[in-house]
């Protein structure tokens, strides 16, 4: 197995309605490219994984715990384990990269779509 991959070659994970991801995982973390459709709402949830991210395109309204921020490309966040959070994508949708530690083992049961171009190149 190669140490290298390309986002366009990764299967697409159906994380939430209107939220798709492509992940690579190692022993300690999962790195995920996530795309949110316009105006999609990710309901409040929490998980045992620390979550760190950066917004690459589009806009988000992100609530982490009791704090809400309007995010633009270049905005970054850290969500400690087990802290509730929710996000709403802007009218153009959003593309972001997130790191989860430990790896997202709970995603093994997610639906999958075939690999397809992610529009990054």
Structure, explained:
With 121 residues, the protein is mostly beta strands. It has strands at 12-16, 19-25, 30-36, 41-45, 50-64, 67-71, 76-79, 85-101, 111-113. It is 0% helix and 56% strand. Strands 1, 2, 3, 4, 5, 6, 7, 8 and 9 form a 9-stranded antiparallel beta sheet that branches. β1 (12-16) and β2 (19-25) form a beta hairpin. It is globular, with a radius of gyration of 14 Å.
What is the compact description of this entry?
By secondary structure, this protein is mostly beta strands. The protein has strands spanning 12-16, 19-25, 30-36, 41-45, 50-64, 67-71, 76-79, 85-101, 111-113. Strands 1, 2, 3, 4, 5, 6, 7, 8 and 9 form a nine-stranded antiparallel sheet that branches.
**Which descriptor suits the 3D outline?**
globular
| Biggest β-sheet description | 9 strands, antiparallel
Radius of gyration: 14 Å
Q: What class, by secondary structure content?
A: mainly beta
Strand content: over 45%
Run of helices and strands: EEEEEEEEE
Return the average pLDDT rounded to an integer: 95
Explain the layout of strands and helices.
Blueprint lengths: L11 E5 L2 E7 L4 E7 L4 E5 L4 E15 L2 E5 L4 E4 L5 E17 L9 E3 L8
Antiparallel strand pairs: 1-2, 1-9, 2-3, 3-8, 4-8, 5-6, 5-7, 5-8
Key attributes of the depicted protein:
9-stranded antiparallel β-sheet; 121 residues; mainly beta
